[in-house]
Amino acid sequence: MKIAVLAGDGIGPEIVAEGVKILKVVAERCDLDLTLTDARIGGAAYDATGHPLPPETLALCRDSDAILLGAVGGPKYDTIEPPDLRPERGALLPLRKHLGLFANLRPAILSPALAGASSLRADLVEKGLDLLVVRELTGGLYFGQPKSNDGTRAVDTCVYTVPEITRIAQVAFQAARKRGKRLCSVDKANVLETSRLWRATVHEVAKEYGDVEVTDMLVDNCAMQLVRDPRQFDVIVTENLFGDILSDEAAMLTGSLGMLPSASLGQGTFGLYEPCHGSAPDIAGRGIANPLATILSVAMLLRYSLQREDAAAAVEAAVAGALEQGLRTADIAAPGEPSVGTMAMGDAVAALLAPDDDLPRD
Ligand code: IPM
Ligand code: MG
Questions:
Q1: Residue 230: pLDDT above 50?
Q2: Ligand 1 touching residue 251 (CB < 6 A)
Q3: Rounded to an integer, what distance in angstroms lies between the CA atom of residue 68 and that of residue 174?
Q4: Active-site choice (21, 46, 77, 142)
Q5: Does 257 score more than 90 pLDDT?
Q6: What is this structure's pTM?
Q7: Is 244 in the active site?
C-alpha cells in the first residue's frame, strides 16, 4: 500500500511526524506492507516551487492508495495574489476536487476520560458523546461558479445537483445504518433553493433505507441543538459550508479541535485523511500541538483505505489508553493540570500499540 505524506505548514510537520510514527508501529504490529512517500503542499510548496500544489505532489497522490495530510496555510500566505495560489484555495480545495473526494466524515467522539475538557456542562456530556458529521466536500459555495470580487461587489455561487446530493446522502445513510440508525439532514430550506433540492433528494434516497430514521433540521437550529443537547444526534449530513461550521462546533464539544480527525472519500477506498484543525501558526514549532486528531485520522486511513478494522481499532484503543493514563496536551489539560508535548503524546500512543513480544504471534 502506498501512502502519500503531506505535512504542509504550521504545526503540520510536527503532528504528521507523530501520525507517521503510529503508522510505522501499527504496520509492524498488524503486518501491513506500507510505503510512505513525502511531498510538499501548501505554503511550504509555494515557497519551494511557486505553487501550493505542485504537479509532482498531485501525481504522487494519484498514484497512492491514501494520503495523510497535516495542515496548510498561515498568515504569511494569506495575501498571495492571485488568491488561487493561496494554500487553502490553491492546494487543499483542488486536491479534494481533483481526487473526487466528495464525502467528508468527521466523527466527534468524547471519551469519558475527557468529559471535563468539553465546553459543555458536565451533566450534558457525562455519558460521553459520539456523533458523526458527514459533510459534502466538493460542491456548494466553495466551488460554485461564478466567483468574483472587483473590490466593490463580490459574488460566490451555491450550486448543487441531484447526483451530488444523492451520492453524499447514500454515504450518510450507509454510515447511519452501521451506527445508531438515525440521520439528521441539515439545510436552510426555508430560504435557499439548493437546500430545497437537498431536502427533496435526501428524502428520495431515504426510500432505499427504510431502517434508518431520517429527520430534517434547519442549520441555525442545528447549531443551537448541538450545544443544547448533542446526544440527540447520531449522524448529521449536510452541505459543504454548513458542514465546515457544524463540524468545528461538534469538535469543541469533545474538548478540543485537536481531537477531531477526518476522512475524505470518493467512490472507492482511496481517501485523504487529515485533522480538522488548521495549521495553528500561533503554536507552530513549539512542540505543544495535540497530535491525536492526526493519529485518529491514521486510524480512519487504516479503516477506510486499507480496510483493516483491526489496525484501526488498535490505534483508537491506544489513544484511549494514553488519555486514561492521564496524558494531556495543553489544549485538553484542565486549568492547572500538567501537560505533555506533541512527541510525548505520540510516544505514549506508540508504546501502547507496540507489538507485545510476550504474546504468541501468528
Ligand atoms: C476544513 C478547513 C478548510 C475548509 C479550509 C482550510 C479551507 O476549515 O477542512 O474544515 O473550509 O474546508
Ligand atoms: Mg473547517
A1: yes
A2: no
A3: 24
A4: 142
A5: no
A6: 0.94
A7: yes
Percent of the chain with pLDDT over 70: 98
Q: How far is the CA of 244 from the centre of ligand 2 (A)?
A: 5
Query: 1-117+261-362 sits in which CATH class?
Result: alpha beta
Question: Higher confidence at residue 39 or residue 358?
Answer: 39
* Helix intervals (H) in the chain: 12-30, 43-49, 55-62, 87, 93-98, 122-125, 162-178, 193-206, 219-228, 240-253, 292-304, 309-324, 342-353
In the chain, the largest separation of any two C-alpha atoms, in whole Å, equals 70
Assess whether the region 1-117+261-362 and the region 119-253 belong to the same CATH fold: yes
Element of type H or E holding 70: strand 66-71
If one residue of 88, 241, 242 were mutated to test the ligand 1 pocket, choosing by the most ligand atoms within 8 A of its CB, it would be 88
Nearest-5° Cα angle at 309, 211 to 11: 110
Closest CA to 124 of 231, 224, 248: 231
Q: Checking phi first, is residue 10 left (phi over 0); if not, alpha (psi -120 to 50) or beta?
A: left
* Residue 137 Cβ contacting ligand 1 at under 6 Å: no
Statement: 119-253 belongs to CATH 3.40.718.10: yes
pLDDT tens track for 186-202: 999 999 999 999 999 99
Give the pLDDT score at 357.
52
Please tell me which residue in 38, 130, 248, 347 is annotated as part of the active site: 248
pLDDT band at 32 (very low <50, low <70, confident <90, very high): very high
Give the residue extent of every domain in the chain: 1-117+261-362, 119-253
Residue 81 has a pLDDT of 94
Q: How many secondary structure helices (H) and strands (E) does the chain include?
A: 13, 12
Phi, psi of 135 (to 5 degrees): -105, 130
